[in-house]
Amino acid sequence: MDRKTMEPERTAVRTTREDPLPGWERDLANPARTLSGAEAVVRSLVEGGVRTVFGYPGGAIMPVYDALFDHGHEIRHVLVRHEQGSIHAAEGYARACGETGVCIATSGPGATNLLTGIADAKMDSTPVVCITGQVPSSALGSDAFQETDVMSVSAPLTKWNHQIADPAEIPAVISKALYLARSGRPGPVLVDITKDAQVRTLAYRPYVEEHKVRGYEPLPSLDEERVEAACRLIDQAERPLVLAGQGVLLSGAQKELGEFVEKAGLPFACTLLGLGAVTSEHPLYVGLLGMHGNYGPNIKTNECDLLIAVGMRFDDRVTGDLAKYARQAKVIHLDIDASEIGKNVPADVEILADAREALGAMTARVRSTSRPAWLAEFAACAAIERERVIENDLHPASPELRMSEVMGRLGARTGGRALVIADVGQHQMAAARYYGCRDGGAFITSGGLGTMGFALPAAMGVGLARRNRPAVAVIGDGGIQMTSQELATIVEERIPVKIMVMNNGYLGMVRQWQELFFRRRYSQTELSNPDFVALAAAYGMEGGRVSERAELDASIDEMLSSPGPFLLEVVVEQEENVFPMVPAGAGCSEIRLE
User: Based on the domain organization, do 176 and 247 belong to the same domain?
Assistant: First the structure.
């Protein structure tokens, strides 16, 4: 197997370009070229800063693929094996480097195969532009071959969608799509282009980057009075707690978050998608929030006197029963999306702003202090959790490997600086709890939608976007079989991603619930699995298997040191459970340790 890796050209996130020649003067200076609509699509993407796209060809998008044939030196197309793989790869690419991910599919089933990924990107605020082909405009509504009303089915899942039947619209619509996807609260955008619009010609002028859409205000103005009100609450609080979400990462506010909590002496916890905002070794970091989060932040949420929510949306996996959630606390909610503030938890102070700007302003005004007694209460909770849960998870007495200790060892071998892409299930929670992101590391997963099959294709995008860090996909034996065809893409594109398959022979999270709440009636959760190492070998990928504790570190090192892609199957305990756990319908302080 050729181990040589193909590294993509990297580009920075584009900023607004000012054209010094307005109106007709610009048009005279830049005479139009006659291009087909398909050529205009590719040209608009290239001039919009896009260097990598993921896709799968088909009849209704074939003109665009024909145009791509001539632009391989400008834009890299990655051929996936299923359209769902293309959008998850675009999501991984976007979340790893901060640029907009782009995927392409044909009409009908090609477009509908994107919908799961579009919903995933919407819930996790990921900037993705999806370009789909469509039947000719004359056939719209006729139930033509591979026609689907993708505009209607994608409308509730996208930030914006638009159908193009006139090729003259293409440059402006592509520009607007890229702008809307990445600005404000990021999200997915879909552009559907009829086949005749791809074939017909237009007078194409040089690309002008969109920077304003009427009625759309992506960056709210910071209200200084609300900042002052928030800082007064913080200064008066005796038991405050900061909840850091993905908005910190999307804003690039990691430094500002650190300065804010350090000046005000604020303990902070992270949501699942907020992991990596600040190193897990930070002395004020008190752990992971939520259903399988740490004991301290869950218990203390219902004992604090002030919650400061930054870039998070109070989803049910964090709050549990809302009727029992933080009833004693005042709430400061900082978010860039007005629809999230007060949606689930009423706020005493609402700050509608970009997290980076707002945190900087709050740091400048808040009083410098420390809170040793309050922090000591978190330390006491951490000691209880370590004794009753963590020690057994990381150093089990049982002979079988546990997912928790595997993730702890991966964190130790990488120094917490690898890019971990977790699928959905028990291994996801074990990775979130025990990997330990440190400086430069990242934790990328499907949060809001909880999409099994996400990690393998997302890791392709991560591996192409960030060549300077190892990328490790952590996937269950159930999840990998949903998108395992993308092993072919990884090998063909020579993406040096590492894949850890946690094989317990079950759909583990569902089995855990069946054990705890359905009298161990394991209905349709036991799996009959293939030989995963042989499956990888069939695609031309190196691999290995480990089931013995004494061989674990060496096996992880072999995987990490491999210059190309590598699949490591880890055979783990079949009926391992993930604790702590907040049962469904319970309050966050009703967390179980066993």
Answer: no
Is 431 found in the same domain as 338?
no
**217 included as an active-site residue:** no
What's the domain count of the chain? 3
Mean pLDDT computed over 210-215: 86
Which tokens go with 76? 């890299």
Q: Check if the beta carbon of residue 3 is closer than 8 Å to that of residue 563.
A: yes
DSSP result, 519-543: TT---S-B-----HHHHHHHTT-EE
Q: Are strands 471-476 and 33-36 parallel, antiparallel or unpaired?
A: unpaired
Cis bond leading into 583, ω under 30°?
no
Catalytic position from the list 195, 300, 330, 498: 195
Residue 2 lies in a domain: no
- What average pLDDT does this structure show over 196-218? 90
Q: Are 420 and 374 in the same domain?
A: no
Can 159 be counted among the known catalytic residues? no
> CA–CA separation, 62 vs 415, rounded Å?
46
Domain range enclosing 183: 31-204
pLDDT at position 539 is 97
Predicted TM-score (pTM) of the model is: 0.92
Residue 218 in domain: no
Decide if 83 is catalytic.
Answer: yes
- 145 labelled catalytic: yes
Q: Which of 7, 25, 145, 217 is catalytic?
A: 145
For the question of residue 256 being annotated catalytic, the response is no
pLDDT, tens only, 225-271: 999 999 999 999 999 999 999 999 999 999 999 999 999 999 999 99
- The verdict on 536 and 502 lying in the same domain is yes
Place of tokens 């194409």: 204
Residue entry with tokens 């370590």: 386
Question: Is the domain of 448 the same as that of 330?
Answer: no
**Within a domain: residue 187?**
yes
